Amino acid sequence: MEHIRIQNLTFSYPQSKDTKSLDNVSINIDRGEYVVLCGKSGSGKTTLLRHLKTVLAPHGIKQGYIYYNGKPIDEMGDEEQAGKIGYVMQNPDDQIVTDKVWHELAFGLESLGCEQKIMRTKVAEMACYFGIQNWFHSDVSTLSGGQKQLLNLASIMAMQPEILILDEPTSQLDPIAASDFLDTIRKINVELGTTIIITEHRLEDIFPYADRAIVMEGGKVIADDAPCNIPKKLYDANNHMFNAMPTPVKIFYNTDSKGETPLTVREGRRWLSREFETKPKFNSIDVDNMEDEVSNPALLLKELWFRYEKDSQDILRGVDMCVPEGSLYAIVGGNGTGKSTLLKSICNICKSYRGKIKVFGKKLDKYKGCELFSNCISMLPQDPVSLFVKKSVREELFEMTKDEKRISDIIEICQINELLEKHPYDLSGGEQQRTALAKVLLNNPRLLLLDEPTKGMDSFFKDEFGGILKDLKDRGITIVMVSHDVEFCAKNADYVSMFFDGQILTTNTPNNFFSNNCFYTTVASRMSKHIFSNAVTVEDVVYLYNKNKGA
Fold this sequence. Notes:
The protein is of the alpha/beta class. About 35% of the residues lie in helices and about 20% in strands. The strands form 4 sheets. The protein has a 6-stranded mixed β-sheet with strand order 6-7-8-3-9-10. A hairpin with a 2-residue loop joins β19 and β20. The longest helix has 18 residues, at about 175-190. The mean pLDDT is about 90.
């Protein structure tokens, strides 16, 4: 039975009237379907999703129709939409409106005029179902990113929507929290029959379980089929969207293998086991080991301690860190462990009460006035929108400097030429990240701090972004990056550290670091570690496969 029908939908933003963000899109979604929407940043995914809830629909020029249960969606009242269509955004902080967890769970029901007795029952049910009861009375401000996103989901599900729309819901979650969150979405679809429409870059966790995959490019639908059929269609068409497919798919096709395409880690593991029934001759990647000592570090931390209030718990608990000059140093770890606080301490936003920080051999407290942020340190925050104060991307850049040559170079590096006349708030998550990075780079930093820089980026620009970071390293810039994106860290970092319980527990090169982990590791490692000892990227597995097969 048809639940949502999108008919010839075309849309353009006011600043880009000649560019169609949606171009004659027609999609039918049946009741209870699990549909994954994929495409590059700026392909129109978020714009399309926002049109499915009129209060979130962007301002612009629109043509076409959207029907909900056969009724034009514009004719639905706000109250009916709030109860029937749930929407989970990328950033959980954009959606939370109250101060307490239990207030947030009850807020939507209260707005719908739900009776208090029924409301209490529904709130209790959602708290139990989502495992929220242990932090039911907590302040929202004390929650981790994963807990906030789970709270958002529970608050929406308390209203028992028929359709649940999710726009990159795991972009700020660590790998374990993201996997748990997506498992919960699957349960909601299977057990409650809720129609799911989701955009997500972690396709390994949802592609095998979705009923349909819809691929968008340039505002158009270029593929709409069962997930198992999509990879071959994209590969045969030599479409670059193939590079966004799950890791087992990319490894399978890049080794010129034949037969049924593995979609999951389990299927990929079984396929490799059949290919290598005996132990392969070449089973490891040659990698460099960690240096014992760094003679001239760009950044040195010794016994760093920090707490936000005098009587509160310590967030940083004796952090020791040494970052070699000209390297990309990645820090991974769970949500709420203090990684972002560590970056803020390095640039003196959060002043540690004990310990020592040296930046390029000079103690932090010896930098006077704006000296620390003048051709020395720049930081890209987790929320790029916090940097935007102007009405266009071009104005944002000229706010930093009037040097047109410098601006032109940064525009080229960050590939934002087509975004210059757009309002920063009209950009996709990945485009906002690129624009914010451009602003930060205009400070000419020698030490660049990045907090979740790949959040909202598609796999295509992640590759480009990796190249940008390499180019910055070649120019002598040292980069410290906090990230949940283990795939990106494995491919691009020189060193990776695990942050836990307020301190850095271990540091190693990517291949050595990720190959020793079970959960905090890459899809390629989980799929191949029973055959290859330290392969952690698609390229590693493909290289060892072909080397053993004599390709």
